[in-house]
Amino acid sequence: MKKTVEILKGDTPGTEWRFPVLSFEGTEEGAPGAYLQAALHGNELAGTVALHRLVPMLEAAEREGRLLGRITLVPQANPIATGQHVFHEHLGRFGLQTRTNFNRDFPLLATTDTSGLPGDDAPIPAEKRLKARLLKLALGHEIVLDLHSDDESPSYLYVARQLWPHLQDLASALGAKAILIWDETSDGAFEEAAWSPYKGLPADDETWNRIAVTTVEFRGMMDVTPAFAEADAAGLYRFLVARGTIRDESVAPLAPWSGPVTPLDHVEMIRAPVGGALLFHAGPGDEVQAGQPLVTIVTAPGEAGGETVVTAPQSGLVLTRRRQRLTRTGEDLLKLLGTSPSATARPGSLES
Ligand SMILES: [Zn+2]
User: Fold this and answer.
1) Which residues lie at CB < 5 A from ion ligand 1?
2) How far apart are CA 200 and CA 318, in angstroms?
3) How many Å lie between the centroid of ligand 1 and the Cα of residue 130?
């Protein structure tokens, strides 16, 4: 394993950011390369600790001559987000400089040639230079996994239409409970930028069997434990073996995957009609019927009419819900996987 350190010039004199890149050289020409990054939003750490546990497994494979494809790990991909604390609260989703979600607005290229992307001397904010840098590190690997976590959630994957069902092996290896299929755009998420060079290929092109580009949601943000870290590292390893990046005869073939595969427009994003305290009646993994109460929002405690009950717009499976129990009007509360299009579906990513 080789460690290098990426240096990102700060936007004010005297500042800079650094993040390590851990890389392994493959030994077999043509074996698929893999790029795994974690913590793009700073505090979604299941992927970070999974990569920490994965490294010794990769080192063993390297020592024993079983590491065939090149592997690049970026366990803490966003030092800007990681360091964004305001009055003891961590704010990792949006950049304080550009006010843009760190997982949106990535450059979308037509090929894997990154030579036209801005360098560190470009007169643009560090957040944008970081996005270009991460893309330069990732493109050229057949496997590109961006490891995130949701609020309260089981593991699930976002997958571009052309990559399903090709990514069933990833879903099986990681124990994903659901697949969300996106079409056309995810508003420039990292995953979309890694998929963009291939987007013009026909759906039956052989390339879609070879590449694996996705956003992995490793459960909820609080589900970071020694056992999960081990299990997630083992899952990533199983996938790398299944794809031929690593050789390991001791790893059993992956079981077929089954679970809900839901297009994004079938996801009911339940939003708060009013602000207040949240009393959830349903949580991740619950099957609910249309009209069933999902959450009561207490707006005027103790007063007649002081609560609002939000019900399920259609029957389905609750995939995620938010961690915070205080909501403002209009905020996202819960993702419900429906079986027909949502009346409130909109193009692009589910959340801002
Ligand atoms: Zn995230």
Assistant:
1) 41, 44, 148
2) 34
3) 16
Q: Is 122 helix (H, G, I), strand (E, B) or coil?
A: coil
| 182, two tokens | 């996106």
In our burial notation (b when 16+ CB lie closer than 10 A, e otherwise), range 269-290 reads: bbebeeebebebbbebebebee
Domains observed in the chain: 2-259 (3.40.630.10), 265-338 (2.40.50.100)
Cβ burial, residue 247 (10 Å; 0-12/13-18/19+): middle
What is the SS3 assignment for 47?
Answer: helix
**Mean pLDDT computed over 213-239:** 98
Strand partners, 145: 36, 214
126: Cβ–Cβ under 8 A, 6 or more apart, which residues?
Answer: 8, 9, 10, 11, 17, 80, 97
Decide if 38 contacts 236 (C-beta within 8 A).
no
Residue type, 61: A
Terminal C-alpha separation, the chain: 37
Match 């991460």 to its residue by tokens: 134
CA dist 79 and 21 (Å) reads 12
Please determine, for residue 56, whether its predicted confidence score (pLDDT) is greater than 90: yes
DSSP letters for 222-281: T---HHHHHHHHHHHHHHHHHTTSB--TTSPPPPPP-S-EEEGGGEEEEE-SS-EEEEES
Tally the residues of the chain. Answer: 352
Measure the CA–CA gap between 136 and 140, rounded to whole angstroms: 9
**Ligand 1 mean position to 126 CA, how many Å?**
19
* 44 alpha carbon – ligand 1 mean position (Å): 6
pLDDT digits (tens, 9 = 90+) for 97-136: 999 999 999 999 999 999 999 999 999 999 999 999 999 9
